[in-house]
Structure formats: C-alpha cells, structure tokens
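I had to read the description of the data format several times before I understood it. In essence, backbone conformation is discretised, so a fold becomes a row of integers matching the chain in length. I therefore recommend that a typical entry be quoted early in the introduction. For illustration, here is how one protein appears when written out as sequence plus structure tokens.

***
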Amino acid sequence: MPTSLLLIAPVVAADPVAAALRRDLDAEVELATTRRAGLACLRRREYTLVLLEDSLASADPEAAELIYQAAGATPALEIHCVLSSAERIVHQVRSALLRLNRDRTEAAAAATERLQHELGATLTGILLESQLALREANPTLQPKLRHVVEMASTLCERLRA
C-alpha cells in the first residue's frame, strides 16, 4: 500500500516540507492549508499518517481535537514547519511510519497466532468427537465418519505446519 500523508499547514511553511516528503519518502502528500480543508480531506479518504502544523493546533485546540477525531485510527503527528528543517520533519515522519508498520506487523502476527490457536482447539475437538463417533458407528456410517476423521486430521496437520 503506498504511503499517503495529509499535511495540514499554511502553504508557505508546508511547500518545502511536502516536497521533501515526496522526494525522500516516495509518499503521496496531500496538502490542506487550513483546519477546515484538513477536515474535508479526512472525510473524503483515509491516510497513512496525518501531519498537523503545531501553530494551527495551538491556535485553536478545539479544531485540532476535531482533526484528531476525524483521523480516527490514523496516527496524527504535530510538526513545526517553521522551526524544524524539512529534513528533520522527514526523519520524524519516517520514524513514525516505521513504528506504524512494526505495530501493524506485530498486530497481524498476534491475530494470526490467536486464530491458529482457536482453530486448532476447534479442530482437535472435531477430530476427537469424530473418532469417538467412528468407534460407535454402525458399518454403513463408518466410511463417512472415517473420511471426516481424515479431513480433520489433515486440517490439524496443516494448521500446525
């Protein structure tokens, strides 16, 4: 998935930062020059990261809070376009993106592991129940139950692999 950034900052301060982000991070950068424009952008689409110029955030904390709420699960980072160099901001954004990717990778691994454990427990139960049913089954049902036991065993083995 390509990196998409929303930069909410006055145009004079934001242009060099946006250019550096595009160049150094190969990111798609959408620029919103006002808080209202930033909110409109957040309503239209999702971004990988939202960057909010500190002067806009501190000038109107309530509007900044609306931006954070509209961002939802998208991380937001306050930056100082005027006080910080574009290179420093690129470094901060790169670091935030690395953390975000690491967190997503860890969350996916944890979800996969949890799902494997849940499926493993369920399949083990199906396997045991079908083996017990096979022992007690009449001869006409045994081939079908044997097939169920084989399928459950195969699934258990594939899940463990």
About this structure: The first helix runs from residue 11 to 25. The mean pLDDT is 90. Residues 89 and 95 are 10 Å apart (CA to CA). The two ends are 28 Å apart (CA to CA).
